[in-house]
């Protein structure tokens, strides 16, 4: 009986020693619960769009086991304060990358444009005057301006003439910009010319109308 008491007391003492090494105690001997380490906790969106909370190591293991890409889609969620990751197939990953590149390209394009200029041209214009307008378009594009063009007509064959004018304008400005949003409205043919970014390299073997040093400046 005495031996059992001694063993019990000894075991209890050993238990207290172990607990003091691994746990923090209050003044009355109660164990203070440990704070969980949440530094590596993440929000994980599965391939089926299911949402779970796990740690980064488990998410990496899961992605390898399922042969999926683990992609960080948000640094810190404003509500949970956790980073957000998503499991993607190779196809989804490449589509996501292409979309990101497209968005970055469009953002750079918008920030590089200095302003807009409008040019209205009648289908009755002569070839020489049309080339003068094209020279002005090229100067504006080189200065990083967006050019809005309105080709108008009031005769039965005017629409066909405007299409021909559009083809000439597109051909002669392709080294400095690109045509977007071409559309017909009433007796008008409208489109925009967007400049290439200043550091982009565009080559064209055909001589351009702006090579003539006697042209006038922008409208």
From TrEMBL:
**Which family is annotated?**
Belongs to the IF-3 family.
| Sample GO molecular function, one term | ribosome binding
Q: Where is this region: Disordered?
A: 194-219
Give the keywords, sorted: Initiation factor, Protein biosynthesis
* Full protein name: Translation initiation factor IF-3
> Species name for this entry?
Diatraea saccharalis
Which terms under GO biological process does the entry name? mitochondrial translational initiation; ribosome disassembly
Tell me a GO cellular component.
mitochondrion
Has keyword Amino-acid biosynthesis? no
Polar residues bias (residue ranges): 198-219
